[in-house]
Amino acid sequence: SSLPPARSSIPCLPQLPILGSLPWLGGGLPPHLLFTKLAHRYGSLFGLFLGPHYTVVVNSHQHAKEVLLQRGRDFAGRPSMVTTELLTRGGKDIAFSDYSPLWKLHRRLVHNSFTLFGEGTSRLQDVVFSAVDSLCSELMSNGSRGFDPSAAVTRAVTNVVCTLVFSSTYRHGDAELQEVISYNNGIVETIARGGLVDIYPWMKVFPNSSLRKLKECIAVRDRLLTRKLEEHKASLAEGDPSDLLDALLKGKKGGPKSHGLEGEGITDDHVLMTAAEAFGAGVETTSTTLLWILAYLLHHPEVQQRVQKELDENVGADRAANLSDRGHLPYLDCVINEGMRIRPVSPVLIPHTAMTDSSIGGHAVRRGTRVLVNMWSIHHDPQNWDKPDLFQPERFLDDQGNRATPSCFMPFGAGPRVCVGESLARMELFLFLSSLLQRMSFRLPEGAPPPNLQGRLGVVLQPMPYEVVVIPRPGWEGGAR
Ligand code: HEM
Asked: What are the binding positions for heme in this chain (predicted)?
C-alpha cells in the first residue's frame, strides 16, 4: 500500500534452470563471506537463485532495519525446508514455523515462560551457578595440562537448559545427559550437512545417510522428551510452574477458543517441539559464543586482565559475581558484545520470507521471496565500525565510559522474529564469564599457537578447536566457594 512509485529491480546473479545461481557461488566460501564478497560486486542488496528459490540478500544496516523492524511483519515468514519440517513435526516450533495467529500465541507463551525464569527471579541464577561450579572444577581438574574446553562448556550449557526445561540436573558423566548431548550433536551435524536437501526438496526421495541419521537422532530426542512430558503431566500441580514444560502445559490450557483462534491451538506436539527447540537453539549458540570469547581472550591477555580488574574492584574474591553486579561491570558487557559482533554465531540469521508484496530500499519484493540478512557484513561494515576486523571491546563504551550499543549491532536479530532466548542467553553469558574469569585465568599452553579465529560454519559459526591452560586465581584454588 505504501510502496514507493518508481522502482528499479534488485541486481541479480545469473541463473540456470534447476541449478539456479549455484554455478556462480563456487569457491567454497561460507555464505556470510560469499555474500559479503558478492555485495562488493552487485551492491549491498542483490538477488540470487538458491536452486529454484529466488532469494534476496541484505547486507546493509539500513536495509536490515527495514526487513526486521520497519516492515518486520511483512518479512516475518519462514520458508518450509525438508530438514526443519522433520525436526519440528511440520513447524510446531517457534523458529521454523511460518507466521500465523497460532504461532504468535505460541511465541508469546514461550516468551512469558522464559520471563518466569529470568529477570526478577533468582532461579536462573541458581541454575547457572550450580553448572558453573561443576564447570570450574572440571576445568581446574586438568591442572597445568592444556586441553580443549569445548566439551566441558557444552556440557555445562546443556545442563542449564535441561534444568530450565524439565528440572533435571545431572552430575558429570550422567548417562541421560550424555544422551541429550549426543542426539543434539547428531542433529546439529546432520542439519549442517543436509543443506542440499533444503535447496532441492525432491532429493528427499533419494537414500541419504545424513537424513537417516537425522531421523534417528530425532527419534531418540522425542522418546526422551515425551517421557519428560508425561511425567510433567502426571505431576502438574497448582501454583508457579517449576520449569518450561510446566509453564507450557499450564499455558496451553487456556485453549485456542479463549484466544479467538480456530482449530486445535497449542497441542502436545507444540509443547514437545518447544522443549526440543530450547536445546536446538539454546545450547550450540550459547556455548559457541562462550568459546569465541575465550578464543579472543587468549589473543588479548590485556582484555582478560581488564575484565578481572573490574571484577576484583566491584565484586572482590569473597563471593561469586551475580546478576545484581551486572550494572557495575560495563567492561565485561563490552567484551561479550564485541565477541558477538566480531563472530556472530548465526551470521545470516534464520531465513525470512516475505508474507505479502513489500519492498526493500524502495525496490519491490514479491510475496514468497526468501530474504537472508547478512549480519556478518553489517557487523564488519567499515561505515558502521572503526577497524571492524579488530577485537576492541571499548567500542561499546561512550566517551564517559558508559555502555553504548549502536543500532547496527544485532547478534540476536530484531523485530517480530528476534531471538526469544535473548535475555536468557545474555544472563547465561554474563554469569558464566563473570564466574569463570573471577575464579581462573585462561592461558595458551606452552608453545601453542593462539586459536585460529577464521571460523567454520556448521549450524553455527564456530572456532576451530583450540587448547587452554587454566590457572586458578587467588582464593579459588578449589574451583568453588
Ligand atoms: C532465533 C541468536 C540463544 C531461542 C534466533 C535468531 C538469532 C539468534 C540470530 C534468528 C533471528 C532472525 O531470524 O531474524 C541467538 C544467539 C544466542 C541465542 C546469538 C546465544 C548467544 C538462544 C537461546 C534460546 C534461543 C538460549 C532459547 C532457549 C531462539 C528461538 C528463535 C531464535 C526460539 C526463533 C525465533 C523466531 O523465529 O521467532 N536466535 N540465540 N536462542 N532463538 Fe536464539
From this structure: 419
Cβ atoms < 10 Å from Cβ of 261: 16
Cβ neighbour number for residue 84 with a 10 Å cutoff: 22
Helices (H), 67-207: 82-87, 101-117, 123-140, 150-166, 175-193, 195-199
Determine the distance separating the centroid of ligand 1 and the alpha carbon of 343, expressed in angstroms. Answer: 15
Query: What pTM was computed for the model?
Result: 0.93
- Strand 352-353 with 370-373, pairing: antiparallel
Is the beta carbon of 285 within 6 A of some atom in ligand 1? yes
- Name the amino acid, one letter, at 471: I
Residue 419 is assigned to a ligand binding site:
yes
Residue 478: closest CA among 317, 363, 338: 317
CA distance 81 to 88: 10
> What is the per-residue burial (b if ≥16 Cβ within 10 Å, else e) of 133-165?
bbbbebbbeeeeebbebbebbbbbbbbbbbbbb
Note the residue count of the chain.
481
- Give me the phi and psi of 99, to 5 degrees please: -65, 130
Range scoring the smallest mean pLDDT among 85-94, 284-293, 354-363: 85-94
CB distance 332 to ligand 1 below 6 Å = no
Residue 424, burial from CB neighbour count under 10 angstroms (0-12, 13-18, 19+)? buried
Contact 243, 228 (CB under 8 A): no
281 lines ligand 1 (CB under 6 A): yes
83-105 pLDDT, tens digit per residue, is: 778 888 888 889 889 999 999 99
Query: Which set of grid coordinates corresponds to residue 340?
Result: 558477538
Helices of type H across 194-267: 195-199, 209-235, 244-252
Residue 469's beta-bridge partner residues? 443
Of ligand 1's atoms, which has the minimum distance to the CA of residue 340?
A: 19
**Alpha helical stretches, state H, 4-59:** 31-42
pLDDT per residue as tens digits for the range 418-474: 999 998 899 999 999 999 999 999 999 999 999 999 998 877 899 999 999 999 998
Strand order in the sheet with 352-353: 45-50, 53-58, 370-373, 352-353
How many whole angstroms from 16 Cα to the centroid of ligand 1? 34
Tell me the three state secondary structure of residue 282: helix
Residue 206 exposed, middle or buried by CB count within 10 Å (0-12, 13-18, 19+): exposed
Euclidean distance between CA atoms 46 and 36, whole angstroms? 11
**DSSP for 301-318, written as a single string:** HHHHHHHHHHHHHHT-SS
Distances (CA, A) of 314 to 309, 332, 395, 430, 450: 9, 12, 21, 15, 30
